[in-house]
Write a structure and sequence with these properties.
Elements (H helix, E strand, L loop, with lengths): L4 H4 L1 H4 L1 H7 L16 H23 L1 H6 L5 H4 L30 H12 L7 H29 L8 H4 L3 H5 L6 H15 L3 H12 L5 H14 L3 H24 L6 H8 L9 H5 L6 H23 L8 H15 L8 H10 L4 H22 L11 H26 L27
């Protein structure tokens, strides 16, 4: 079955893509040789364009680059970033030394934060922060490019769908807030390896992703559910062995360096509900939910997500695909979590690409994300100037709009994924270009 035009040539099949293509000369012509240059060309072009989006993110944070990331100025200008804060850490030592990032970050994120710090000048001044931010931006550009290429290599017959990662407007606002993109890149490469029938290597990358951010557990669980449904038990064993090995190695490195890799999770359990979460709305309404109760709700959210995944993969009349399944499960985990940071949007970008979401739906969701991005900083800064800040009721409204936007893309993903090409030898299998079938991936 051939892919719809909107997947193979978005500029000819989707109005938003057609309008955007006017910048470079308009939609692809009638006689254009679509796909002749293969997925590598699409991956390279989109990776270059992704660097432009991150560069626009640097411009968006230009006030802080010029005047510093101090509060509340960075909040009023919506240019706050966690990256320059790490420039104040001590040189040498380990990520778990006094003042290191290892006490509040998963292992690999803490190590990346610490490594970048070793290349910055000593001191806590603005000069050191600028160098750290610049180095961090370079690392983020490379990780976004890696994510983009991994998507293109997985979606070989529809590689331009990686534009959902490379050209998403949320890269401008969210990509430079933290190193969340590290977990995104590792998880995406893990999915690409799974598509290439390398379950052990896929497990190692997904396990490493979990050691960067916890959310890739959702992707790992969705892969396991789909594979068990398809009877691929040996692949599941290798996948889980690779993931467990990666986690064990990361834990071992942390312990050998004098750290406690479980500390971030204990901190999370005892933390109060944070910005962006639905449970935080009770805090805004002056009826805060106890930390333990919020933690239990978050754990129940994970349980609900996996139970729903089990139900969806068990339907005899449907061949549930992994991409919409993982996206739906992730949305449930996000909406029931204790916090939902402004950079959480980066987590869903690869899955949005893999389901072939329509650009109309993507841009509606991204618009809600960007509006929330601005309003969140105005709300956080409001104690310094209540007359200028965002009132709690208005902030709660934008939190709800954002939640609806996430539910919207989860719902739309099921319809969009129906357009993805399937293996002609397995008409009811998961899309080969999505990498969920255990058959050979599609060729150029």
């Amino acid at each position: 079955m051939h892919s719809p035009t909107r997947l193979t040539a978005p500029s000819r099949g989707e109005e938003p893509a057609a309008l955007a293509s006017e910048i470079i000369g308009g939609p692809a012509g009638r006689f254009a040789a679509i796909g002749r240059r293969g997925w590598t060309y699409a991956g390279a072009m989109l990776s270059a364009l992704a660097s432009v989006m991150v560069a626009l993110g640097v411009i968006q944070k230009g006030h802080c680059v010029e005047d510093g990331w101090g509060s509340p100025g960075a909040l009023w200008r919506a240019c706050y970033s966690d990256l320059p804060v790490a420039a104040t850490g001590a040189h040498g030592g380990t990520p778990w030394s006094v003042g290191g990032p290892g006490h509040n970050q998963p292992v690999l994120t803490a190590m990346l934060t610490w490594i970048v710090n070793q290349f910055t000048p000593s001191g806590a001044g603005l000069a050191a922060q600028r160098v750290y931010f610049a180095l961090g931006a370079v690392v983020i550009v490379l990780l976004v490019a890696l994510t983009t290429v991994a998507i293109s290599s997985t979606m070989r017959t529809t590689p331009w769908l990686a534009a959902h990662v490379a050209l998403s407007p949320v890269l401008i606002t969210a990509s430079l807030v933290s190193f969340d993109i590290l977990g995104v890149a590792l998880a995406t490469v893990g999915m690409a390896l799974w598509a290439r029938k390398q379950p052990l290597a896929a497990g190692i990358l997904l396990g490493a992703a979990v050691m960067s951010r916890t959310y890739p557990l959702v992707i790992l669980g969705a892969i396991v559910l789909i594979a068990l449904r398809d009877g691929a038990r040996d692949a599941v064993v290798r996948l889980l062995a690779g993931a467990a090995g990666a986690v064990a190695v990361c834990f071992g490195i942390a312990y050998l360096m004098g750290g406690d890799p479980l500390d971030p999770y204990r901190v999370w359990w005892h933390a109060d509900p944070g910005y962006g979460s639905l449970s935080y709305l009770l805090t805004v309404a002056h009826h805060p939910l106890p930390a333990a109760s919020a933690s239990i709700i978050a754990v129940l959210g994970w349980a609900i997500a996996f139970l729903l995944g089990l139900y969806l993969t068990g339907r005899p009349a449907e061949r549930t695909q992994l991409a919409p399944l993982a996206l739906t499960m992730l949305v449930i985990v996000l909406l029931t979590g204790k916090s939902m940071s402004v950079q959480s949007c980066l987590w869903v970008l690869p899955l949005i690409a893999l389901v072939g979401l329509r650009w109309r739906d993507h841009l509606l969701w991204a618009g809600a994300e960007i509006v929330y991005f601005v309003m969140a900083w105005l709300f956080i800064a409001s104690p310094s100037n209540p007359a200028k800040g965002m009132p709690g009721a208005a902030y709660s409204f934008f939190v709800l709009i954002r939640a609806i936007a996430y539910l919207g893309i989860a719902w739309a993903s099921w319809e969009s994924a129906q357009d993805l090409p399937r293996d002609p030898a397995e008409p009811y299998s998961a899309p080969v270009t999505d990498g969920w079938a255990l058959g050979e991936p599609a060729t150029d």
